[in-house]
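Record format v2
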Amino acid sequence: MNSNSKRTGVLISIQDSLVKARYNENVIMGETAEILVEGKFLQAEVLQIVSDPKNAKLGIVEMQVFEDLTGAKIGDLVVFKGKALSVLLGPGLLTSIWDGLQNALYPLGKQDSYLKPGMRAPALDEEKLWDFTPMVKPGDTLYGGHAIGSVPEGRFIHKILVPFGFGKCKIQTIIESSLVNITQTVAIVTDEHNKEHELKLVFSHPVKSPIPFMERSIPKKTISTGVRVIDLLAPVAYGGTVGNPGPFGAGKTVLQHSLCKYALADIIIMAACGERAGEAVEVFKDFAELDDPSTGESLMNRMCIFGNTSSMPVAAREASVFIALTVGEYYRYQGYNVILLADSTSRWAQALRERSGRQGDIPGPEAFPMDIPDQIKGMYQRAGADTGSGGSLTFIGTVSPAGGNFQEPVTQATMDSTGGFWGLSQDRADAKKYPAIDSLVYTNSVYDSFISKEDRDQILKTLQEANDIDQTISTIGLKKVPVEKYVLYQKGQTIDFCVLQQDAFHELDACTRPERLQVINMAIQKLIKTPIHFSNEEGDVEELKEQIKTEFDQLRLWWKDWNANAKSDAELAGLPEQIENFVLQEQYA
Ligand code: ADP
Ligand code: MG
């Protein structure tokens, strides 16, 4: 879709981010354009073309503009770029922070992390030198996606690829091992028509064309996220997808930050999409200073962040998620395990809703575009595992339904599109039971856990029964509950309080690795499966229940303390021992 001719148009209508322009030469669906407004070029994308019935080269286009249109007037110049919305791929992506259009935010020294409309910052550092080592020689035949060399990017090997759009091509020249920046040519190739192309360390790729898999495979290997309720009951595998809906304040963002810090992956990409600007700026600052707990290096060395906050134009949100996905696919292709965290996909969907509303499309449920389920599915489908490259792209998206109503279209479509589902509950958040993932309602996962399916089912069954007894207690009272049931209820409460609840801000408790999880599971299973006989001499059932509660309260305090302090192997082994003693001891008051 490259075109060198200067194709232009003029604005004839402006309606928020949606504009119409009359054009003078063929326009291509989906190509980008720039609109000259008060001396600055604003980025836009062609959405619809209505050509003149008498002359196909003339007509009207409808475009969405990704930047604030304040000051735009009828008659303003439009220049068509002949290129779909693209992202720049190459070394330097890691450690970067951009806005939703891949403008680098930090190099500009922006305090408020917000570019003014029309301001551009190069996506990648153009001066930084990279230590290039060639992998091919003149005369070699290659295809798009093949590596011509590599550079070290932090602790990663970053392969320099022939752009994916290329067919068969032949290396004419390639530089020796040397230090180069991203503006320099490292190789010249000829295509099948003998046309020469200069290859650099970077190339741009259209964000709506997924980067191919080498050999797609079913996500199998479970990720250690460090979050117990997830790793035990609703796990996610490398290359998997998860929807994480929850009402405002239920802990979606805190959970994403936990995953950022503790989930075992090579690379983490954050797409902060339409959430509060203050929150995003905080993340930039915090994460720049945080260390990666598994390497001790700065967390940013394995991260990049797209910050597209609520104060930025809505249309750019749509772009930001696709840009982040493409960067994720690129590193998967390089052989790395990548996790993409998008917060929130509801804001992304709102951008689509606003656009389709302005375009006058027939609206679907709650005014979302009719095809919103397909668009959501299409987004999650770009995640996946690749046995060919050895890499994976895991996509975890938050959903923020108004009023926490999970019946709304975006939450529903997400449930249909993802392999895992972590529903956060208002009740749990209100009770400060964090993370507020409700393991009984709306929690689901097709992936393997770190514990056996039987053990996982046992835990869920106990939680369910304890929950039912809880309901009984609150409706008809504790008196009507027999002692065995009350013990079961206390067991469920213990699992919830000591295992499922986890302090995201506590140094040790924040992250539980699989070995520790196994110890915990041993304790849980022992607790669940061993009948405990409580009795007292007087035979006073109500007093006995009081005593049972006291015993369990003590156990829970002990366990919480273990969560916060147990480190050595001996200390770890203390938990199963404690449970063993607790369940075996005939408890007399
Ligand atoms: P959301 O993104 O769903 O609107 P947040 O992630 O901002 O909600 O969480 C709101 C507040 O809840 C946080 O500021 C924090 O005080 C508390 N919180 C959430 N999750 C946890 C957690 N795992 N541990 C401790 N506190 C939490
Ligand atoms: Mg949030």
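Residues 541-565 form the longest helix (25 residues).
The chain has a mean pLDDT of 90.
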